[in-house]
Design a protein that fits this description.
Layout (H helix, E strand, L loop, with lengths): L1 H21 L1 H6 L2 H19 L5 H24 L1 H8 L3 E5 L2 E2 L1 H7 L3 H10 L10 E4 L5 E4 L14 E5 L2 E2 L1 H6 L4 H10 L7 E6 L5 E5 L1
Antiparallel strand pairs: 1-2, 1-3, 3-4, 5-6, 5-7, 7-8
Length: 212
Amino acid sequence: MIIVLLRATILYGMLLISMRIMGKGDLGELQPFDLVVSLMLAELAVMPVEDLGAPLSHGLTAIAAIMFLQCLISYISLKNNTARKIICGRPSILIDHGKFNIKEMNKLRVNTNDILGQMRLKGFYNVEDIDYLIMETNGEVSIIGPVEKPDIRCNRIPIAVIIDGKIMYDNLNQFNIKEEDVRKKLKQKGLKLKQVIYGFVDEDDKYIFYKR
């Protein structure tokens, strides 16, 4: 028992030192590469504690090696823009002034519901209220848009009637919206159902559709 506690204490200290050396940026941003490194460090720390027959020095050496490689990669990424793009990727614009970027959405495997959810989390409910929605390299979403006036309030969230070319019948039934009205509005705007990536009814009962 004492040996286990001693090993755990030493490994904990080593991990703490490693994280401090690698910097707060790695902990705060958690790029995909950083997440892999964190998981590797955790696994390397557990192995010497579980297997008392394994030399403690092996675990410490492996942690030190990972720490060195992570610092090296971080330094290269900091100094070289090309390397940074290869290792961390680049931000992706998913909405550009009311237009969905289908190519980037498919590339990142992000659907319309994901985007709408992120918009609501950021305090936006209408696609027209934002200029850009950007997926950052760490998975976070940034929204660039005009600052709304303090007295403007949303009386009702938009009711999605079409998502990815499919009618949302549950919403139609819940809010007493007729399917024929949706199709009528589509026809008036010269759109087919499969052409619409997102369609909703706003708080003024106005139908708004976004093409693919």
